[in-house]
Amino acid sequence: MVTPNRKLRTVTPLHLDRVSAPVSLKDQAYLAIKAAILSLDLEPGHPLVESELAEQLGISKTPVRTALHELERDGLVTKVLYKGTYVTDITSRDIREVFQLRAVLEGFAARLSVPALDESDFAQARELLSAAETALETGDRALASQYGAQFHDLIRRKADNQRLLLIVRNLDDHTQRFRLLSDQISGRLEKSLGQHKAIVEALEARDPQLAEQRVRQHLRSVLDELSAEQSMDTNPPGEEQPRESR
Description:
By secondary structure, the chain is mostly helical. Helices cover 63% and strands 3% of the residues.
């Protein structure tokens, strides 16, 4: 009950954002096709036919077409006039450019991370490397590779440079395809594990110059082996025989 002399409080209306709509068919198509490209289920150079993709996804061609446009902007899909749409090929130049950038940026990140790393970070790094080693011993090379990627991300994050982190993560889609290719090289994951341990030793020694040097050497090692092992097709998409998906 309100007393006669008491003023009623004015209630200010809330201004809430509307609830987001469910993921659109275009976004679902984009994510599904992108995942297949990054996992190499859709191999470099594989033709992408809208009607076939739409049938596999159980949707119409319109959202598939829009998804392919976005993937083209991402650099994962290439359209060739009068020929069709293809998964973007991986060339020796692509690998060289991405790994050169990663070596500079991630080496710098290692240098920046040294003052920020504490004992819990070193424990996490050691745990990731131990888990990777166990995965290799049990033959789970895909899992070992994932732990290696997490190790790299730990160093990036501790650099505490958001712009550097954004640039490196923008390379991650391409790096993921390259990583899957390098993982297939005999002994590559084992060598990477040893190099990761050497990086941790430099970080624990609080030596920023050595940490940067070892990260650069590690990524250069991956680049050299991948360039030597992979026979990259330099023909533009559409100039080769269609490849079957894995």
